[in-house]
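USER: Please consider what follows.
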Amino acid sequence: MFIGWDISGTSYDVAHVKWGESWKMPTKTQCEELLNNCNFEFTNINGTNVCKVTGKNGGVIFIPTSGAYMQITDKTELWGKNYVANFWSSSAETADGYSYYLYLSYDGTHITPWSRATGLPVRPVKK
C-alpha cells in the first residue's frame, strides 16, 4: 500500500504521532539542507560514539552512531553500530517501498533511498 510521497506531519509519521503535534520527521529537503550547511565531526560522549553536527549559526545536534537493522544472509543483524549515524527522512523515493535516509559515517555522507524494511532510527525535528 502506497501512503504518499511525503508523510511528514501525518498520522503515518512516527515522530509526529509519538512526540506530538509540534514534531515531525524531517523531509528529504531538510536532510539536504543539513548535509549542505553543516559540519560533521565524529566523537565520543560518555562512552557513546556520536556524530556532532554544527550549523553555520553555531547550533549543535548530536546523532548517535546507532547503525541499522537489516537482513544479512538468513537473519536480521545490527550493522554499522559505532561508526554509522543515520536516520529516515519522511520522503518516499518510489511507490514500491523505498524512502530517503541521511547517512553519515567516517568515510562519507549522502542522502539516498533505501528499503523501508530496514530498521533505521528516526530523528524528530520541530515543526
The CA atoms of residues 13 and 120 lie 14 Å apart. The mean pLDDT is 92.
